[in-house]
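To: structure desk
From: M.T.
Subject: fold request, one chain
Message: Could you run this one when you get a chance? Sequence is below, nothing fancy, just the single chain.
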Amino acid sequence: MLGWQEEYREILDRIETELRELDMWADKPPEMAAFTSTLPFCVDTMPLENWLQFVLIPKVESLLALDRTLPGPADIAPIAEEAFKHNHNALKLVRVLQEFDDLTKRGSRH
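Reply: Done. Structure tokens follow.
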């Protein structure tokens, strides 16, 4: 059985893998101004795949490296369903994001 940190790392790796397989993994980050958004998921300044790559994954990895408790429950999958509704190839990514959401709802420490 994986520890809570390993569970998060495994899901983050799967999110990255799915983004790469969908050719959504960017070679460079968005402009710095895109990170100043005050809206959830930086919805007004970058596409969700950029937010996953440049905000979610690094933030969670940083908290894990510092052995810090992660923020409360996430609800990324519903946003992903909407963002990728015209990309049927993204269904697996949405499922992985649902697993991430479910993990956050169980709590960061088991």
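Reply (cont.): Helices lie at 4-21, 48-65, 76-83, 91-106. Let me know if you need anything else for the meeting.
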